[in-house]
Amino acid sequence: MARSRTNPESLRGQNVISLPNAAPAAEPGAPPEPRWVDIFSGPELAPLRRMARREWRLLLRQLERAHVQVTPLDGVVLEDFVVCRVRIRWLEAQLLTPSHATDRGEAKDPSFSPLNQYRAQLKFYVDRLGLSPRSRQDLRQARGEDEPGLDLD
User: Fold this and answer.
1) Secondary structure (DSSP) of 27-41
2) What is the pLDDT of residues 21-56, one digit of tens each?
3) Which of 129-152 are b and which e, b meaning 16 or more Cβ less than 10 Å from the residue's Cβ?
4) Does 2 fall in a domain?
5) Which residue segment(s) compose the domain that 51 sits in?
6) Is the pTM of this model over 0.70?
């Protein structure tokens, strides 16, 4: 007799783990602030740690004002958002000119490549977290005007 993938009776006697239908709800409360010294280590990166601390606190305040319920599960995404913001600001400060002279002529500053990658990642997070006017509008429309709060997917 062939086993059916959709019929649990056909799996009787086998070591099968049944998974819950819905993911467990995340506990309420903001995630703990990351240890920025683990990401921006070294005494020369102390300004980046201070910047990350300010960005983290500002982000959580903005999400709270937008009535977005943040949970500890969101910590990784929020941390990556802050790291992108800090690195963009740091790379922007390092750029003196968009291009520089070389023996072959003008060349684009090599910092532009990672800068553009961080900007693309940041745009993704801004859209997903509802941090721009357009993304907040889209999130409200997707959820419906009568339902409170923002749906982050």
Assistant:
1) PSSPPPPP-HHHHS-
2) 555 565 667 899 999 999 999 999 999 999 999 999
3) bbbeeebeeebeeeeeeeeeebee
4) no
5) 29-96+108-143
6) no
